[in-house]
Amino acid sequence: MRWSERDYVIAFNMLDGVGPKRLSALVKFFGSLEQAWHADCRDLIRVPGFGEVLARHIADQRREIDPNDEKGWAASHGARIITLLDSQEYPPCLKHLPNPPLALYIRGQLPDRLGIAIVGSRKATQTGKKQAYNFAYRLADCGIPIISGLAVGIDTQAHLGALAAQGFTAAVMATPINVIYPAHNRRLAQSIADSGCIVTEFSSRTGTKPGNFPLRNRLIAAFSQAILVVEAGQKSGTLSTVDAGLDLGRDIWAVPGDIGHPLRKGTHALIKQGAGLADSPDDLLAAFPQNSINLEENLDRDHEIVLKYYLQGYSPDKIVALTGIPIHEVQNAITMIELDGLSNSGREHRL
Predict the structure, then answer these.
(1) Is 87 exposed, middle or buried (0-12, 13-18, 19+ CB in 10 A)?
(2) Is 37 in contact with 9 (CB distance < 8 Å)?
(3) Which superfamily, per CATH, for 1-65?
(4) SS3 assignment, position 54
(5) What does the alpha-carbon distance between residue 272 and residue 284 come to, in Å, rounded to a whole number?
(6) Domain spans of the chain?
(7) Phi/psi of residue 254, nearest 5 degrees
(8) How far apart (Å, rounded) are the C-alpha atoms in residues 146 and 188?
(9) Which CATH architecture has domain 106-290?
(10) CB contact set of 339 (below 8 Å; sequence gap of 6+)
(11) Over 197-214, what HEC string results?
(12) Which stretches of the chain are DSSP H helices?
């Protein structure tokens, strides 16, 4: 069976060691996704940024991958797959990440606008859990999507609060779509999928490993217009979501608490560093009128501007100088242009 272009993207997403930048390098070198996929190991070694170890690793994995089987597997778990090539469905807020997912596995419906992420410790106190629930309930009741990571503690309470308000909540996972982590949140995951969505970038071939969680956290930040940290220690993994949010220009908020409690050290440090102090959901409601749709339109407009200049032959640095668009957004837009097969259209010269 002949594969479509999006089938090749699904297949490349299943390869360990290949992300959007390496896929872009492959397309530039071989001219198409199909030729890149079928290239032998000797040719893969010649791709800039590749080496013998990576080339052999890719070649070995390809024998076991069929995107049609993957689509059937996703469907058997109630999910669908969308790729970077599915421009009408792929979330605009993810297109502008420095490393956007090649593919997304989705149960339910993605949010139609940016929400507010509520994140914090897995070992949350009863006070922290109550705060996460109450903030989520009030914000969701006002129509704001609640984004979190389905972990125990703060994440779980944020999802529960949104569901109790009959609002929208999205759970971004660090595991394949069929692996609910922790397992005892299976019923919660089903409730989220029924009225909101569960989403992951990880294929059926991905194991549960620590490195997946920072990748998950960047998507939580990208789906959000602001990040609210309820409880976090000074070295909490939650802070990687904050870092991702800061890279994307998202506003950070933190809930204060007992100055002597270890799980408030991280939140208090954030407040000292300039995060907004939130002791009521009304603080966030006042700060964020529901303007996320306008933000998404601005992101799409930036992509169109990059496309216009790139097809005229301008270099990424020149596009940044002319437009003021951040370099990582320019580079990512160019990656998507090349994956879309547009890179050979209208190229006249490079300045």
Answers:
(1) middle
(2) no
(3) 5' to 3' exonuclease, C-terminal subdomain (1.10.150.20)
(4) helix
(5) 18
(6) 1-65, 106-290, 293-339
(7) -145, 145
(8) 14
(9) 3-Layer(aba) Sandwich (3.40)
(10) 9, 20, 23, 24, 27, 33, 84, 85
(11) EEEECCCCCCCCCCCHHH
(12) 5-13, 20-30, 33-38, 41-45, 52-62, 67-76, 92-95, 126-141, 154-164, 186-195, 212-222, 238-247, 265-272, 281-287, 292-311, 316-323, 327-339
Return the structure tokens found at 210. 């620590």
Q: How far is the CA of 152 from the CAs of 67, 158, 254, 292, in angstroms?
A: 33, 10, 19, 28
Q: Is 170 helix (H, G, I), strand (E, B) or coil?
A: strand
3-state secondary structure of 267: helix
77 φ, ψ (degrees, to nearest 5): -105, 20
Q: Please report where in the chains the tokens 């109450």 appear, as a residue.
A: 134
Distance of CA 141 to the CA centre of its chain: 25
Distance of alpha carbon 165 from alpha carbon 139, whole angstroms: 9
Measured in degrees and rounded to the nearest 5, phi and psi for residue 260 equal -95, -5
> How far is CA 224 from each of CA 24, 86, 169, 290, rounded to the nearest angstrom?
27, 21, 11, 12
Secondary structure (3-state) at 163: helix
Tokens of 118: 């509520």
Along the 351 residues of the chain, how does pLDDT read in single tens digits? Answer: 689 999 999 999 999 989 888 998 999 999 999 999 999 999 999 999 899 999 999 999 999 999 999 999 999 999 999 999 998 899 999 988 888 999 999 999 999 999 999 999 999 999 999 999 999 999 999 999 999 999 999 999 999 999 999 999 999 999 999 999 999 999 999 999 999 999 999 999 998 888 899 999 999 999 999 999 999 888 788 889 999 999 999 999 999 988 888 888 989 999 999 999 999 999 999 887 654 434 445 556 677 788 777 777 788 888 888 787 877 777 767 776 666 554 444 333 333
